[in-house]
């Protein structure tokens, strides 16, 4: 690392100390990463998000990408990550890939259902029409797409339709009883529900907040270990060249109680997430 001085000469200098911005203080994982960067690596923490940094420790998609510096860009997320990291939009991504003739993994048949909360479907449709009209007007006025309102953005990208009627028609012809519904924005095992067709319809219709649900048939005879549900979670790194590196260690998770389909409301039997099992 060199700096040009008066007279056109270059003098050697130590490279600038790497820096990071800690944007999500609620995350215990990022708190530990921040501690190690400062205490063990000698990094400096930026006091605010106005300064250029090398690493952005953030767990939300609305953080600014512009504060990343040019020396190295390390970030836990990438643009358009919601297309594969959110449940309902992942469904749309896989459908579009299949329609384009791309190879896609085999996934269970999935339906998107919507709870409107206090806003009835008719009013929601009117708001969508208004947002669509607003987005067209803004575009006509030369407003770039990334500055459109969030409602307009979702319409520009193609909002997911409510597939309640398709699911209900399909469910009536099936011989299995239970369905699993997951909130597309949920995490830590929250907002996961296992219900019959009639129960799920009532639940979605009466849910107090606007939520989009990914609904699939619940596997009633899963592969068990010692009569308990389990899964294996692995970590991978995707680099800018689309090379994938798999971490050598994995996490094995098991239900704390034996599996029993007569107790679908018992979450510790059916949902293996750590946050559910420790409660």
Question: How would you describe this structure to a colleague?
Answer:
With 279 residues, the chain is α/β, with parallel strands linked by helices. It has 9 helices and 14 strands. It has helices at 28-39, 82-85, 87-99, 121-140, 150-157, 164-172, 197-206, 267-270, 274-277, and strands spanning 2-4, 10-12, 19-22, 44-45, 55-57, 74-75, 110-116, 178-183, 192-196, 210-217, 230-233, 236-238, 244-246, 251-254. A 4-stranded parallel β-sheet has the order 4-3-5-6, with helices on one face. β3 (19-22), α1 and β4 form a beta-alpha-beta unit. The model is unreliable at 124-158 (pLDDT under 50).
Q: How would you classify the helix and strand content by structural class?
A: alpha/beta
Give the ordered list of helices and strands: EEEHEEEHHEHHHEEHEEEEEHH
Strand content bin: 15-25%
Distance between the termini: 52 Å
Biggest sheet, strands in spatial order? Answer: 4-3-5-6
- Biggest β-sheet description: 4 strands, parallel
The tally of strands reads: 14
Q: Approximately how much helix is present in the residues?
A: 25-40%
Poorly predicted spans: 124-158
Approximate shape: globular
């Amino acid at each position: 690392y060199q700096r040009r001085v008066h007279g056109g000469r270059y003098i050697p200098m130590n490279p600038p100390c790497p820096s990071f911005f800690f944007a999500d203080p609620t995350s215990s994982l990022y708190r530990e990463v921040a501690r190690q960067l400062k205490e063990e690596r000698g990094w400096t923490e930026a006091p605010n998000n106005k300064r250029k940094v090398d690493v952005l420790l953030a767990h939300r998609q609305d953080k600014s990408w512009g504060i990343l510096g040019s020396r190295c860009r390390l970030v836990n997320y990438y643009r358009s990550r919601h297309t594969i990291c959110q449940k309902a939009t992942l469904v749309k991504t896989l459908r579009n890939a299949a329609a384009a003739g791309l190879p896609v993994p085999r996934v269970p048949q999935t339906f998107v259902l919507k709870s409107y909360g206090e806003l009835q479907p008719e009013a929601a449709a009117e708001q969508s029409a208004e947002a669509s009209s607003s987005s067209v007007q803004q575009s006509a006025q030369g407003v770039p797409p990334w500055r459109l309102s969030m409602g307009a953005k979702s319409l520009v990208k193609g909002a997911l339709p409510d597939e309640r009627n398709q699911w209900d028609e399909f469910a009536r012809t099936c011989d299995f009883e239970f369905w699993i519904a997951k909130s597309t924005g949920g995490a830590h095992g929250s907002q996961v529900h296992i219900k019959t067709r009639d129960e799920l319809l009532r639940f979605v219709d009466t849910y107090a907040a606007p939520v989009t649900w990914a609904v699939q048939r619940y596997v009633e005879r899963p592969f068990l270990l010692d009569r308990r549900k389990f899964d294996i979670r692995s970590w991978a790194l995707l680099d800018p060249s689309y090379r994938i590196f798999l971490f050598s260690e994995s996490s094995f998770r098991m239900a704390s109680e034996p599996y029993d389909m007569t107790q679908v409301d018992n979450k510790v039997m059916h949902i293996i997430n750590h946050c559910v099992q420790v409660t």
